Amino acid sequence: MRLNADFIAGVVAGIVLFLIFGELRTLLENNPTLLQRQPQPSIKAVKTKSRYTHPFFVELDKDNDFVYLQLPVDDRETTVYNGMTKKEYDILEMDYLRYIVTQQYDCRERVRAGNIDEGGWEVCLDPPFNIKRNQCLVYSFGIKDDWSYDDYMVKKGCEVHSFDPTIGKEDHQRKPRNFFHNLGLSGFDGVQGFPVKKLSTIMQMLGHTKRTIDFLKFDIELSEWSAIKTMIEDRSILKVKQMAAELHTPFNSRVIPTMEQMQLIKDLKNTGFKIFFSSYQFSPHCRKFSPQTKRLVHAFINIHFVNTNFVNEKR
Question: Where are its TM segments located (predicted)?
């Protein structure tokens, strides 16, 4: 009896499978494209007039309701700089200060390298900017007496070259993977109270012209503007994956910013460098009032960039 029940069950299952395959064959004969790979819908970037992407924040931003308080009426039409009236310059200054602290690249993972306050810098760890042990190359300009950033990058397995011609030290190997150079960074090769060189010259001097600088950091007291200008002109900046700089505005400057500084900010973006993090220094000596607009501004701002030309490289 047991054998007969199993036999019957097998026969029924066979009949069911025969009917299923028959129906499937008929379906495929009538629809030959079913087995062909269907094209997948493409994913397109969402473009909006807002600086935000998510609909919730786009909605919040749609009125463009940034509040701008104009200068007193009797002072607006005075010509102050480069043919601009004080009213025109006031708007330019305001937007410059907003722009340099606006995030342009979404770095999902970053770490503080070095001190939590002055002396430390943010490092983006998202591929392709992640720091690869025993492969990474770091240039650090401006040490003073704070080695916390350099030491952090050494511990991460990077070859770190530290530069500062103002601390009275000669060239030496400070520790394994860390080399000190009595040399400054600028926009030319020469002397400005101490020896300075262009980034391209330094890379050639150290035999790094075929290597990528994973992180370039500089706090060089106003020399950053000429250094950046030359890096863009000779394209050595394209060898840099991440860059962090303390941008200075001289206290005796008549305007904040100058047209030259604004052009460099524009050139950086056009070269592929986007801001992923900015921070103010809040000590009293870092704050001043704009000579033209009486707006409180920060004379020193730390700005961190990633070079988006590397985003599409093979990981």
Answer: 7-28
Residue pair 234/200 in contact by the 8 Å Cβ criterion: yes
Taking the C-alpha atoms of residue 185 and residue 195, their distance in angstroms, rounded to an integer, is: 9
Q: Measure the CA–CA gap between 21 and 109, rounded to whole angstroms.
A: 52
pLDDT at 140: 97
> Cα angle vertex 32, ends 28, 38, to 5°?
110
CA 109 and chain centroid, separation: 12
Q: Which residues of the chain have pLDDT under 70?
A: 1-49, 73-74, 250-252, 313-315
Dist CA 254 CA 264 (whole Å): 18
Q: Which of 74, 105, 71 is nearest to 91 (CA)?
A: 71
Angle (CA) 119-124-127 rounded to 5° is 155
In order of their start, the domains of the chain are: 73-310 (3.40.50)
110-114: list long-range contacts, CB under 8 Å, 24+ apart: 110/276, 110/277, 113/148, 113/149, 113/152, 113/153, 114/146, 114/148, 114/149, 114/150, 114/151, 114/152
The candidate with the shortest Cα–Cα distance to 202, out of 174, 231, 225, 169, is: 231
State how far the alpha carbon of 273 is from the alpha carbons of 242, 258, 310, in Å.
8, 20, 10
